[in-house]
Task: structure prediction
Amino acid sequence: MNALTEKQFERYKRNILLDGVGSQGQVKLLQAKVLVVGSGGLGSPAAYYLAAAGVGNIGLVDGDRVDLSNLQRQILHTTSDLGRPKTDSARDKLTALNPDIHVICFNEWLGEDNYRDIITGFDLVVDGTDNFATRFLINRACVEQRKPYIFGGVLGYTGQVMTIIPGRGPCLACIFRDVPPESAPSCASIGVLGAVPGMIGTAEAAEAVKLILGLGEPLVGRLMTYDALTMRFYDIEIGRDQSCPICGSIS
Ligand SMILES: [Zn+2]
Result:
């Protein structure tokens, strides 16, 4: 596929008009393969914006079903989806928004036995998970396969996002050496303001589009933190750890 149809040109006009995108950029988006792990609070806005932008192949991984307590923030799901697999519910919304794209569903949890195989089929990974054990698996596979991984996390009124490009900046294990204990605070124990994963998931989608198009300055080596209570964003600059057990030996 090298040319856009008339309908595609119309649908993506506001992308195509952007400096640095054009029709060629739109074709790149349509050919891209992005894996969004988790179809919840972060994965919903991230996948929505990727689908709207015309990212042509979106993988969704989630083994969960839609629960009433999800609907306060997980905007891909509605009340009539209660009890459905999240990946099915998410795919319906994404393809209704944009029938131009392919959505590949993995109705399972990302774990030790499948993470490498699932990630192999994609160009980059967007984090929509809610736990560090899964994030460390994604980080490991992305370093091994030299693929970008856009990390995102939320808790309470705050969120964080960072782009990991193996060999170019720190990986997750350079920053957080070990998986935090299960007793660490979580959204399930202390809550989360729904708009916070909205902000962070949207930032992740913007990073993914930038990487696909080679635009701007990716959030590499800068952990961006957002605090909804003060409405401030700030960067924490972080370098690579040469003794990192995951990425220390790669260049
Ligand atoms: Zn590392």
In short: The first helix runs from residue 6 to 11. The first strand starts at residue 33 and ends at 37.
